[in-house]
Amino acid sequence: MQTTFQHKNFRLSYIKFGSGSKPLLAFHGFGQNATRLQHLFENHSLHTVYAFDLFLHGESRMPETDNGIKPLMPNELKDIFEAFFKRENIDEFDTFGFSLGAKTVLQLLWFFPEKARSIHLAAPDGFKLNPWYFFVVHTRTGSGIFKFLLANPSLFNFLLGIINKLYIPNKKTSKFVVQSLNTQPKRNFVYNVWTAYKALSVDTGLLAGMVLTKNHIKIHQYYGAYDTIISQKPGRKFAEQINQSNRVHIVKSGHNLLFGSGLKALSEELKKHLD
Description:
This protein starts with a strand and ends with a helix. Helix content is 45%, strand content 20%. It is of the alpha/beta class. The mean pLDDT is 90. It has 2 domains: 2-129 and 201-274, 3-Layer(aba) Sandwich (Rossmann fold), CATH 3.40.50.1820; 131-195, no CATH class. 30% of the residues are buried. The chain has an 8-stranded mixed β-sheet with strand order 1-2-4-3-7-8-9-10, with helices on both faces. A two-stranded antiparallel sheet has the order 5-6.
């Protein structure tokens, strides 16, 4: 059932499915939408799943300014979900986030530790800030260069050609970068999403201390064995900090764990730890 939750100027779209007694909040990755999560959790009978469209994806919308997309602030996210939990009568939850969706999950854990039962992060974005991402969205120079390239698509395409030809930094990653930026609409979308989510950043040291204090919280991490986009190292370091190294799981897949054989492997692994 596709549903829209309106809070002030934010419209949060989600699909609710399943009839289990346990609420599960689920967030997809960059460029996807909530329907992708239906395939992941279709056999999880113990949960009622709330699969959300991230902002700027699917039907979820957020306010804009005259200068374009305004970053989603952590306290705004907190207010949205406080209202959502009240409407849906959610007192505790399990939650899942893939890649970009993990940023939202980590923020929810930070704001609502008393409600969080188990956290499931697949190829998570949020444990370590990518230096190129930081340069583009957190510095005037980086933002200015990216906007200049957006305004000069022929130059942007020339640079992508170099990346593709020289396999910078490696073949799989260069292919991923080129596919993500090879058209003007894709480039605009990347910049807008990066801007929208740039303020969602949790101090993992403080988060680790909180998790250790609230020792009922279980954090499971899932990584593709052949993933060249998201490194396991920051997540493994965090797992060591919270004494949960045994909850890092490796599946036979690349980065995209919500498609094909990766989806099947992740679904089977998730079922072990959710049920």
